[in-house]
Each structure stands twice: as C-alpha cells, then as structure tokens.
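retry 2 of 3: previous attempt timed out while embedding zinc ion. Reduced batch size to 1 and resubmitted. Inputs unchanged:
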Amino acid sequence: MLQDIKVIGATLMKAGNIELYKQLLDYQADAQKLIDENMKLKEENRVLKEKLMIQSELEFRNNQYFRIKDGIKLGPYCTRCWDAESKLINLHQSNDGYSDCPSCKVSVVNNQAPYNQSYDDSFGW
Ligand SMILES: [Zn+2]
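retry 2 succeeded.
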C-alpha cells in the first residue's frame, strides 16, 4: 500500500500537481499511523491470548501457583506477581520452611498439606 502511494506521488510530482501531492503525503501519514496501530493491537492481542492460555493452566495451591502444561507440573510461582503483573516468577525455597519470591519478596509457608491428595496423585505430586 505504501509503495503504491510512493508511485502515485512520483507521478504527481512529475505532473507538477503539488496540491494533490501534499494531500497524498497526508494520506500516507494517516496510513502509516493505521499500520502502526494495527501492529500494536496485534501485539496486545498476542500478549492477552498468551496470558489467557497461562491462566487456564494455573492451579492455586498452598498460596502458590503451579502451571500444568502438557501434563507436567511447573512452579511454584508467586501468586502476587502473576495476579498483579502477569509475571510468572519462580518461588525460591529457603531452609526455614518458606518459599520466597525474588521479585516482590513475598514469603509463603511451603510445608502445608496438598489441598487435594487424589488430584495430586494423578500428577505424581
Ligand atoms: Zn512475587
């Protein structure tokens, strides 16, 4: 589309039609804005789809998130960082019975019993 506009612009310049050429430049700028906005919206759409996919794979358990992806348990992840910032941050286990988020510094007790033993057993947890 922008290439066509350049060809038309060159033709108008050769013909000496400055008013139409200026109008064409305005259309070219408008077209570029639409292209940029479309790219931005496509990227936002991709990020939202990815977030929805991750959200559907998350299990909340013992104040932590675990991600079940292709039958594999990943995590635990910080609930605060996902809920507030959509970031999956791995919790670090410490020797005092807590798991700590290296990003937001939240600590959760990591020695609680699983909420659903039969579900956990099906995944080998
Ligand atoms: Zn966090």
